[in-house]
Specification:
303 residues; five-stranded antiparallel beta sheet; alpha/beta; 44% helix; single chain; globular
Length: 303
């Protein structure tokens, strides 16, 4: 127990050092940007965002804290790091920056919908009072469901109304919003508006992505286990981090449903969100970061 407590103390100390490093580095470089008064406001904001992103990427690449997560290959270090780095607020002259770090594998990649787990997607949507046709529309937007020479054999008319909608996979929340808008108008199902899909789904072309069960929210557990919200809430409150399937205390049926999805107890990927506020202007940068490969992906800028 003493050894375990010591390890946790060291991991927490390293996390605090990471927070200090990121605060100092970003603060110094933003002060340099502030002095560039000859740059017009919007260009200045773009420049600020680029510098902040560059700083954060460099800090992540050089972080001993994150390297220790990869070296030790233990979910405990990652769990402590993420628990301590949910929000790093930076107050600078005329500028406020919030850096938040979460697991990039806490949600289900919507593009992992397959014939094997399709019944449980349908069951999940049924829990949300969303009609069976919704899954068919999602399948239409993933060409992997189309047999050879049947690319135009769709279940719905979504591409008649949205001919330029991307068809290989669902690439973003913006695309899902278009799909949801079509479903609402086509099937008159108002229940679609009551579901916060951002709590359940992420978007990636990688169909082999796994969900890290240590960070899955109750809504995600409902889908992965084919269970009710109440049961998912109870599992979510169990002591973490989980290391083995038995830690979740699942029923035989829940284990059977879970086996239809790709899951794990250690996925070394983090999601970084940087929110920048200057006067009345706001911008956001978000991306995924592969700790092992030291590489960012899925960059999204909102200015």
């Amino acid at each position: 127990m003493a050894h375990q407590s010591s390890r946790r103390g060291i991991a927490l100390l390293m996390t605090l050092m990471f927070v200090i490093v990121i605060s100092v580095a970003i603060g110094y470089n933003l002060m340099q940007v502030k002095n560039a008064s000859h740059i017009v406001q919007k260009e200045k904001m773009l420049y600020q965002n680029s510098m902040i992103l560059e700083d954060v990427l460099q800090i992540l690449k050089n972080s001993q804290e994150l390297q220790s997560v990869v070296n030790d290959k233990t979910n405990e270090n990652l769990f402590i790091f993420l628990a301590s780095s949910k929000l790093i607020p930076l107050e600078l002259p005329s500028l406020h920056v919030d850096v938040s770090i979460t697991s990039a594998r806490a949600k289900v990649n919507i593009n992992t919908l397959s014939r094997k787990n399709e019944p449980y997607f349908r069951e999940f949507f049924a829990h949300m009072m969303i009609g069976n046709s919704y899954t068919d529309v999602l399948k239409d937007c993933m060409s992997k469901f189309q047999a050879k020479n049947e690319y135009n054999n769709y279940n719905s008319v979504i591409f008649d109304e949205n001919p330029y909608l991307f068809r290989e996979y669902i690439a973003s929340k913006k695309e899902l919003d278009i799909i949801n808008h079509f479903y609402l108008n086509e099937y008159n199902d108002e229940n679609i508006k009551a579901v916060d899909f951002s709590k359940v789904f992420r978007f990636s072309a990688d169909e082999n992505e796994k969900v890290d069960l240590n960070y899955a929210q109750p809504e995600v557990l409902m889908l992965l286990l084919g269970t009710t919200k109440e049961r998912a809430d109870a599992i979510y409150t169990l002591p973490k981090p989980f290391s083995l399937l038995k830690d979740l205390d699942l029923s035989d049926n829940e284990k059977r449903v879970l086996s239809k999805f790709k899951t794990s107890f250690f996925e070394p990927y983090v999601h970084i969100t940087i929110k920048i506020q200057k006067d009345k202007a706001n911008s956001t940068i978000s991306f995924d970061y592969d700790i092992k490969q030291k590489k960012g992906s899925n960059f999204v800028f909102n200015i």
